[in-house]
Amino acid sequence: MTKAMEQALMDAVTKELPEAKVERVFVTKNGTRMAGFALRRDDRELCPTFYFEKLKTAVEREGIETVAKKIAQMNSGEAPFELPVNIRDYDSVKDLLSVSAVNAELWKESLPDMPHRIICDLALICTVTIKSGSDVYNVNITNALAREWGVNGGDILKDAMANAPKVSAPVIGTLGGTMNEISGVEHTETPGVYVMTNKAKINGFASIFYPGAQNVIRAMAGECYILPSSRHEAMIVSTERGEPKELIKIVTAINRAEVSDEDFLSDNVYWFGEDGELKAYR
Q1: 47 pLDDT above the threshold of 60
Q2: How many angstroms from the chain centroid is the CA of residue 92?
Q3: Can you say whether the dihedral through the CA atoms of 266, 268, 271, 272 is positive or negative?
Q4: What's the pTM value of the predicted model, to 2 decimals?
Q5: DSSP 3-state assignment of 2?
Q6: Is the C or the N end of the chain the one with fewer CB within 10 Å?
Q7: Would you give the end-to-end CA distance of the chain in angstroms?
Q8: Are β-strands 170-174 and 193-198 bridged in parallel, bridged antiparallel, or unpaired?
Q9: How far apart are CA 75 and CA 47, in angstroms?
C-alpha cells in the first residue's frame, strides 16, 4: 500500500469516526517494525491497532471507503474498544509489566529500540499485558515509550521481571498432565519430562527466568535441560533422558514440523549453570 493510500484510508476512517483521533503508529510485532494506525478518544487509548500491510488485500479488493466503513462498524455501538489504562503513564502500567523471550538474531533490528537483556541466543524484552473484557493485549515496550515515561530501560526490565509472576503466575507440570489438559484425552506419562509455562500460556518460556523459578525446576526435575518448545512454553527434560546434541535434533524437528514462525524461539538446548546463569549448548 502506498503512503498516499495509507493516508487516504486514515482520512476515510476519520470521516467515519469523527469523535476519534486517527494516529499513525509504528509497532514492533514479532521482530518486524510495522506501520499502521491507532484510534484515540479524549486522550485515551483505543484498540485495536490496524496494520496497513494486513489491510492491503482488503483495500485492493473492496476499496478504501468500504474498508473504512467496516473499521468504523467494529468500533461503534456499545462494544468496548478502549484500553482500560493509559499506556503513556508509567504508574498506570507498572503493575501490568511482564517479560517475554525472543530469538535475538531474528529480532536484531528491533532490539536496539527496546529495553532488553541478551541471554545466550535469546533476548528478554518487556511487555505490558492489558486485559479488556475477554481480550488480552500484549504491548512491547520501546525506548521511545520509556523516554515518554521518564524511566530508565534497565529499571523497566527490573520491574517487569519482578512483576511478571503477578501478571501470569508460573505453571509447571508433567508432560502427560499438560497434554491431558490441552487435549482432554488421557496421555501416558513420560518420566523425567515436564512443561513450564505461565497461567495465561502466552510468552510462557520466559517463566524460567522468573524469581525463584530455578529452585522450582530443580525441585521437580533435578539436573535437567531446558528445551524451547516455543515462545510460550519450555520443556524441562532430565539429563538422564538424553544428551544436548540429540535433544537439539528433537527440538529442531519439532520446530520445523509444529511451531509457527511467529512462535519460534530457538533450536538450542539450555541448562542453568552453578552460577545461576542460563547456558546454551551452542
Answers
A1: no
A2: 20
A3: negative
A4: 0.73
A5: coil
A6: C
A7: 41
A8: antiparallel
A9: 9
